[in-house]
Amino acid sequence: MVNKNSCAVIVFARYPEKGKVKTRLAKEIGEESALEFYTSCAENTFTECKKIKSENILLYLFYSGVKDKTLIAKWAGFDFICLPQTGSDLGERMSNAFSMVFSNGIKKAVIIGTDIPNIDAELINRACEVLNYADVTIGPSADGGYYLLGMKKKYDFLFDNINWSTKSVFSETQFRIIKNNLNYFILSELVDIDTKDDFLKWSVKR
After folding, report:
1. Are the beta carbons of 118 and 191 closer than 8 angstroms?
2. Which of 32, 42, 45, 110 is the most exposed place for a label (fewest CB within 10 A)?
């Protein structure tokens, strides 16, 4: 049930199929290893999300890669409301996902991906709590992007004309937040695994 304290946790995921996930990483460590890593990472994200599920936390999974919602639901678990991603690029897909949950009366929402191996329930819950006083919360990734974005209403300027998958994504997003006089909170930096070098650095530190 939606109430004034409800927070939607939106997970973006691609159904795990060989050759279709972590393609940059797969070129360096092989498709099988990349698939195994992605699947493990995504399933950890699902597990951590379920740890914080309560009457105030609503779990959404926006998926790509397959049209069969049943496959996604069986993989992620039936705690999630599963919906397909829509849009021509990442910004449009995220914007549409936020629009969907806010149209259901949700007052706060955070979005995360499934390739951050160190994300956990405490951090996700913290992001939701921060939105009690901040307009936006953002979690920077080590590659210059971000792994989490949260807000109390949809700000279209955070999604339009961003050079996605570049080192400037976080800085450009932060610039726009400041330019529009929003109160924001920056979460801890985490590693987004896209390359063999990222993978090796993370493997050593874990």
Report:
1. yes
2. 32
Is the sign of the CA dihedral 77, 79, 85, 89 positive or negative? negative
Distances (CA, A) of 46 to 33, 49, 98, 160: 20, 5, 19, 28
Q: Is 180 among the domain residues?
A: yes
Beta strands (DSSP E) in 47-135 are 57-64, 81-84, 108-112
Q: Specify the pLDDT at position 3.
A: 67
Among residues 119, 140, 115, the alpha carbon closest in space to that of 193 is found at 115
Q: What angle do CA 7, 10, 15 make, to 5 degrees?
A: 155
Between CA 48 and CA 76 the distance in angstroms is 11
Neighbours of 46 (CB within 10 A): 18
Q: Is a pLDDT exceeding 90 seen at residue 55? A: no
Residue 2 in domain: no
Q: Are 183 and 189 in contact (CB under 8 A)?
A: no
Q: Is the pLDDT of residue 203 over 80?
A: no
Query: For 159, what's the count of Cα atoms within 13 Å in the CB-facing half-sphere?
Result: 21
Number of domains in the chain: 1
The pLDDT of 104-130, averaged and rounded, is 94
CATH number at residue 34: 3.90.550.10
